[in-house]
Specification:
Blueprint lengths: L4 E5 L6 E5 L4 E3 L6 E3 L5 E4 L6 H12 L8 H4 L1 E2 L3 E35 H5 L8 E23 L2 E5 L34 E2 L9 E2 L6 H17 L6 E28 L2 E8 L5 E7 L5 H28 L4 H31 L2 E3 L1
Parallel strand pairs: 5-12, 7-11
Antiparallel strand pairs: 1-2, 3-4, 5-10, 6-12, 7-8, 7-9, 7-12, 12-13, 13-14, 14-15
Helix pairs in contact: 5-6
Length: 359
């Protein structure tokens, strides 16, 4: 990627700066003074290691797997994969502090205890008597004053776009869970970053961030506070002081492929990670129970039941006053037959749609 130039003014002499897009430091060519622009956000991109063919192959592996409906790969109409670069704020800071408190000491003992049977089962059993159980008892036996020094350089990644409609969990101050199948994670920065400049934009669509930098910094601050608070875990009578300094943020664009396809009259979607080549999320036609097997089972049941019903009806009709019983038998058989046909019709409709396999 060739560097693009953007016009900025030197804070010392006011002359125009000639800095590549994405750079926050340099030297003024007019006054030769060093220049640092901390308010300017550096933008990076992770190039996709997959092309459209690789994305199609990743989806096809799922279509041909045992979990999908038989014949899905042959009956699918796949559209051209689209490459998107979704934004993430990656924020790093230095968390420093001191925590003082009392650390208690415990010992655990397993002792036999006699309890009533009703207490053991949580209900009144009545007359069962007492039983012997073993319980673990934790007893505080000591304490000591401790002082912990905290020095950490945590990193927090915040989703700058809403990826929940695609089934990808968002990274925020409320959720910092690992994302299965993706290289970007909650607290790590992927390797292979390249400076994003306007002259060498990668092929694909850059998704505009909807989360502002100030909002991302606020969410990251909440995460950094949790890091600082973790040093006082298991302590009593805690006194602590900490500070969060040196926050640096970058805007990272991460590649994902969106593959849409149609099969068996339904529309489906798959999200392929452009770095790992795996399907991070997807909806596929799931396996369905073969309707023909169920129909054969019903046919066998009715083949055995019809002679019995005919014999029962004839026998009931020949007996004195048995005409009513014969009519009831015939009505019941007709109702059962109608219910069977209705069930087969519902299964046929379901067979046309199929279940949905979520990956």
């Amino acid at each position: 990627m060739s560097p693009a130039r953007s016009a900025l003014k030197c804070p010392s002499c006011g002359g125009l700066l000639d800095l590549p897009d994405g750079e926050i430091s340099g030297t003024c060519r007019h006054c030769s003074n060093p220049v640092l622009l901390p308010d300017r956000v550096r933008r990076f991109v992770l190039p996709s290691v997959l092309d459209s063919t690789g994305a199609l192959r990743a989806v096809r592996r799922i279509l041909e797997s045992a979990g999908t409906r038989r014949g899905t790969a042959a009956r699918s109409t796949v559209r051209r994969p689209l490459l998107f670069y979704v934004p993430y704020w990656s924020i790093r800071a230095q968390v420093s502090g001191i925590t003082a408190g009392v650390e208690p000491g415990y010992i655990e003992e397993t002792i036999p205890t006699v309890v009533d049977e009703s207490d053991r089962n949580g209900m009144q059993m009545g007359g069962r008597g007492a039983v012997m159980v073993r319980r673990t008892v934790r007893t505080r036996v000591s304490w000591k004053a401790v002082e912990k020094e905290l020095r950490s350089l945590p990193r927090v990644n915040i989703s700058a776009a809403d990826l929940e409609p695609l089934g990808i969990p968002s990274l925020s101050d409320r959720a910092q869970l690992s994302i299965t199948g993706m290289e970007i994670q909650a607290g790590s920065l992927p390797r292979g970053l390249e400076v994003l400049d306007s002259a060498g934009l990668p092929e694909g669509v850059l998704v505009d961030p909807v989360v502002s930098l100030s909002e991302a910094l606020s969410q990251a601050g909440t995460c950094f506070e949790r890091v600082a608070g973790g040093s006082s875990r298991l302590l009593e009578h805690v006194w602590s002081w900490h500070s969060v300094t040196g926050c640096r943020a970058i805007l990272l664009y991460y590649p994902i492929w969106i593959v849409d396809f149609e099969a068996f009259g339904g529309s489906y979607k798959a999200v392929v990670d452009g770095r790992t080549g795996s399907v991070a999320r997807g909806w596929f036609p799931g396996r369905v129970f073969d309707r023909r097997i169920v129909a054969a089972g019903f046919a066998a049941v009715w083949a055995a039941a019809i002679p019995c019903l005919v014999h029962l009806s004839l026998g009931s009709g020949a007996a004195p006053g048995g005409g009513g019983c014969a009519l009831v038998t015939i009505a019941g058989a007709a109702a059962a037959l109608a219910a069977t046909l209705r069930l087969l019709g519902l299964m046929e409709n379901r067979d046309g749609r199929g279940d949905v396999l979520v990956v």
